[in-house]
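Hi there. Long-time user, first ticket. I'm pasting a complex I've been working with (about 903 residues overall). I'd like to know whether the download I got is complete or cut off, because the file seemed smaller than I expected. Thanks.
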Amino acid sequence: MLPTWLVLIVSFAYLASLFVVAFYGDRRADAGRSLISGATVYSLSLCVFATSWTYYGSVGGAARTGMSFLTTYLGPTLMFALGLVVIRRVIRISRRNKITSMADFVSARYGKSGLLGGLVAVIAVVGATPYIALQLKAVSGTFELIQRHPTTGPGAMPPWEDPACYVALLLAGFTILFGTRHLDATERHEGVVAAIALESVIKLVAFLAVGLFVTFGLFHGFGDLFRQAADAHLTQLFSLGVGTGDWLWLVLLSMGASVLLPRQWQMAVVENIDGRHLKRAAWLFPLYLLVINIFVLPIAAGGLLSFGTSTNPDTYVLALPMAAGQSALTLIVFIGGLSAATGMIIVEMVALSTMVSNAVVMPLLLRVAPRMVEERDARQLVLTVRRVTIVVVLLLGYGYFRLAGQGVALASIGVVSFAAVAQFAPAVFGGLFWKGATRRGALVGLSAGFAVWVYTLLLPTFSDTGWPPASFMADGPFGIEWLRPQHLFGLNGVDSTSHAMFWSMLVNVGGYVLVSLWRPPTARERSQARRFLGVRRDPAETWQWRNRVTVGELRTLLERFVSLPPDDVLRECGRQHDFAPTAQAGPELIRHVETSLAASMGTTSARILIASIAGEEQLRVEQVIEMLDEASKVATLEERHRLARELHDSVSQALFSMTLYTRATELAMQKEGGDPAGAVARGLTELRGLTQGALAEMRAALFQLRPDSLHEDGLAEAVRKRAMAMSAREGLEVTVQAPDDRLHVDDAAEEELFRVVQEAMHNSVKHAQPTRISVRMGEHPEIAGALLIEISDDGAGFDPDAPRTEGMGLNGMRERMTRIGGELVIDSRPTGSTTVRAVLPGAAPRQARTP
Amino acid sequence: MVAAGFVLLLPPLLTAFDHAGTVWGVPAIWAYLFAAWAVIIGLSALAGRGRG
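Hi, the file is complete. Here it is re-exported in full:
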């Protein structure tokens, strides 16, 4: 059988080859010839999602509870195939604001809250610890299996004999070497990405090899394998394995995890070099997961048939080829498993060390001991912090594995981590869509959700260690039964994951929403929210700083904290600025420098640094006025709506009844034989005309009061109402020819078109004294798909080029049309009638566009 | 497509295949899940191409 030394040598050779690939990747990146510029490499790097949990744990899960292992991979499929819009948006926002970790993302969204960023980093570290432990456990367990073969059975090794300990140290070395090589302005690590993409290929090939071997080597294909399983009454293989509610929670959990896990965020968002790569990843990443999972159930069936339950099902993947005496395959499988574990640990470490240094340690140092930062090379300090973080977090993971992870199934440890990162979902995704979400809301939701997670999921994993005592789990703390960690408030009948998710999400989302609603966002939160919501470009700078800042001062900051040449960074902001050291720096330049600092130091530290020279930020005066304006505008609008509603309900209704009654009286008088030419009859007719006119006028006025009725009615209907009112008021004939179909335009364009028509009709009445005006709307006869609106009158014309036309608002109309991408043509002669034509390409009524 | 994904991969449609025995010699639930999964991946690949 395989000698231990051979396994060790091959493992080291494998890890060494990773070093080489990473080194080569970095060299290529430095030379500007990126190794990872393809969409396929990006997709493969995302496959860091498949770890030892997938590689060994899935088979274990399938052997115990059937198909439920698949939930972990269906979630990412749904997320990447269907939630792509969200991911794309996160990438775009991160790139624009040079955000390099999830902690910074959340902190930046909620008014650059340092507290929030720190909390995210802490939760990420605590949440990732069991997951790292899982990888170490898998490496240690499989190595032990090979070493002890053919004897099996449990046995605890001291740490110095435990390969997991050495793997952990070696990986710490790798990550320190390639993950913290230098302080990059983008926090991209091309060498690491290249190595991870390679690892994804290796683990896939190795897993498929063992799958094929079991299915077609040990058995005669799928049919034979499953027939034997059915005969052996292994019914769990043919079932979902969990209740429907649990299935749903597990899918949701993995959906969130596929983006929110620190390593997924790192790969999907931070290391993304081209947003378009996402399109291929949307199907390639799920496809990879599908392929790697095809043989999970067959291997589980094969393992159960070969070993029964005497062997830990988490080791079937390795135990099957080993028992069959396939040394080479066993070695390949072991290396595949090693690559699954190392890939996860490396990327997780890079992501976590960035978060901890940028969101926790550096802000603390800058606040508590600014001297310490002052006296050292700040960039070196950041790197040191990251290196220490890497070692500490790996040791934490190892500690957790030794302490709590010994007897537990791999998959159940992983789910604990999934549930931890799920706590980020409300703050991250909510922040992308809900403008009213606040820093306090996010803080309360996150910390409450995290607390429940610790109590209901993390704590119980320690129960085998004797603390918390068994009575704590069974009877609750101090014997209070409704506080039992796995049956909070007496909730029974669901598994521990669903239980924990239900309560943690309840307090998380509940806290987030309620607290956000309770206090409206502050001005700073709102201005940050605007950078995250919808807009494709950054809003104009609305803040200013208290102190006068010179370009020289900004340069000094950049010199000390950013590894790029400071002049290059300054020039990125645009050449229109004055870069002389004594020149005063404008708010745009200060903001630009802050963003650049944030890229290497994190959002919070950047803000502290800028504040140290520029003082606190404050809102610009114009901004305050604008906000007041906005508020009063809202109030006015509400008042107008109320007025319109009341006028409609009272006066409008009364006028309508009056026209009906007048008509009824007329008819009644004719019936009774009254004189149709008499004074009464003439009076009635006159009265009916007047009432109808008043009603039309009223309706037009109501329409003016409620601008959004334009969008309710559509342009054609709105123009008709306008025309009716005008003809009633001015006593001239106004005809409207328009199709009933809605136009192919957005609300804003519809509004502009309406104003143009209104203005043209108004001009005509005011300057031309016409007897009739006609408005025609429809597809342009010469330009396919274009909308043509013609407003013509039979009044006195004018010379469109004459200076007199200035007062006619023609320029305003032209501007309106240009703004929405159309044009205005005026055809008028001083001796004849006038026709105004508004042309808008691509806006013809839908009906007219299809033949 | 979003709806299709959720309907196909989540209960209650899924439970119809739970313990449903075998189809062509393989477990029905296994065959169904992978088939539905492949369909969704195929659809999203097509959608991506259409957009591009």
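A couple of notes from our side: The longest strand of chain A covers residues 772-779. The two ends of chain A are 76 Å apart (CA to CA).
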